[in-house]
Amino acid sequence: MSTSGPRVTHHILSVLVENKAGVLSRVAGLFSRRGFNIFSLAVSPTDDERFSRMTIVVDAESAPLEQVTRQLDKLINVVEITELSAGAAVERELMLATVAADASNRGQVTELAAIFEAKILDVGPDALTLMAAGSPDKLDSIEELLRPFGITGLQRTGRIALPRIARGTVRLAAVSESA
Predict the structure, then answer these.
(1) How far apart are CA 137 and CA 162, in angstroms?
(2) At 39, is the secondary structure helix, strand, or coil?
(3) Which pTM does this prediction carry?
(4) Fold agreement (10-89, 90-162)
(5) CA distance 36 to 67
(6) What is the per-residue pLDDT across 76-88, written as a single tens digit (0 to 9) for each?
C-alpha cells in the first residue's frame, strides 16, 4: 500500500447490514462473482446489536459505483448503502509493523514512531513492533519511511469510515444585562 506507482482511485461504501451469519460471505461472493476488486473490507457491530457496518473500499476501475450499489441493494440483509467521498468522511486505519532495529538504528526508528504518534508495543534485541493509527495517507507515509530499516512484518486493517458530522452556523446566545 505504499504511495509509489500510479494512484488508484477508490469508492468507499458504508454498508449497514443485518447482524446475521452468512452476510459477510454473501457480500464477498457478490464482489467475487462480478469481478469487483475489494481493496479493503472492515466489518464490526454497531451500537444496535441487530446491525453491523461494513466499510468496503473498492477499486473504482474494476467496479462502476452504480453497478456495485445496485448489486448490493439486491441482497436481502443489506439495510442501507452510503458512498463516502474523501472530503465528506472521517477515515482511519490501523497498522502494526515489526521493524529491524538494533542498537545502531533503534533511536532513529523510535524517533520516527514518535513523529507519527505511533506506539511501540513490543521490543526485542534486534526489532521493534509498533502500532500506528490514522488516515491511510499517514500510514502510507510511515510505512514508506520505515522500509529502509527493514520491515519484517506488516499488517493493516483496511479503512473504517463514517460520514463527517454536519456543522451548521454556531450562534452564541446574547447575554442580557441586568441593571
Answers:
(1) 17
(2) strand
(3) 0.76
(4) yes
(5) 10
(6) 899 999 999 877 8
